[in-house]
Amino acid sequence: MRNQELARIFEEIGLMSEFLGDNPFRVRAYYQAARTLYDLDTPIEEMAKKGKEALLELPGIGPDLADKILEFLSTGKVKKHEELFQKVPRGVLSVMEVPGVGPKTARMLYEALGIDSLEKLKEALDRGDLTRLRGFGPKKAERIREGLALAQAAGKRRPLGAVLSLARSLLEAIRGLPGVERAELCGSARRYKDTVGDLDFLAVGPKSERVVEGFVRFPR
Questions:
Q1: What angle do helix axes 3-19 and 160-175 make, rounded to 10 degrees?
Q2: Average of pLDDT values for 8-25?
Q3: Rounded distance between C-alpha atoms, residue 76 and residue 73, angstroms
């Protein structure tokens, strides 16, 4: 199932396009396509076997994006994704994903201070460089510092979008287990945190051992 990989590519195209000041409608189209793929339970390669028309039935997928899906499934790459990396330093992508930064702020930091990595962002924060930029006060710099700490800790965690589809499918499977009266997703995924370290579920039923036995037999 290549949904997550392709969703990530579309998300990166959106981030880099926004960084470069591309058409906002086009940028949003990539973000929407990424969300569609993150939430899609059916493998995209299975849908593609039915032809381009089947892809066009997906929310937010138009002819251009459908062609890019087919391109990815055929070659393992998307040409536009590769082209954008010729214009945007790869380290800038990490900076854009820091909570509190985003594409527009990342572009300002890159153009004003040459920040193209998390390491350079930390050094600039430590020197107080950000507060000398127009529109950056101590509070905004502190929010970015907190976001940077979260991003650096994310190596042991995964982006919410990358696991939400799995969490929802597991929840439905748990709800279908014998003896389960009610089940809910809990923890950081339920609270829609930026990153998730694990998935937590709460299940209620008269015989908990039956629920546990069914859960540990799941193929995943």
A1: 150
A2: 93
A3: 6
Same fold, 3-84 and 158-216: no
Give me Rg for the CA atoms of the chain: 21
Locate all alpha helices (DSSP H) within 40-137, ordered by sequence: 44-48, 52-56, 63-75, 79-84, 90-96, 102-113, 118-127
Q: In whole angstroms, give the CA distance from residue 184 to residue 45.
A: 30
pTM (2 d.p.): 0.69
Q: Using the 8-state DSSP alphabet, how is residue 159 labeled?
A: E
Find out whether 34 and 161 touch, Cβ atoms under 8 Å: yes
| Dihedral over Cα of 90, 91, 97, 100: its sign | negative
Tokens of 187: 């923890």
CATH homologous superfamily for the domain 158-216: Beta Polymerase, domain 2 (3.30.460.10)
**Is residue 105 a contact partner of residue 200, using CB atoms and an 8 Å limit?**
no
pLDDT digit string (tens) for 91-119? Answer: 999 898 888 898 999 999 999 999 999 99
Nearest to 161 by CA among 19, 15, 31, 13: 31
**Which fold does the domain 90-156 belong to in CATH?**
DNA polymerase; domain 1 (1.10.150)
CA atoms of 170 and 94, how far apart (whole Å): 30
CA pair distance 168, 182, nearest whole angstrom: 14
Q: Please name the amino acid found at residue 24.
A: P
- Span 67-77, pLDDT tens digits: 999 999 999 99
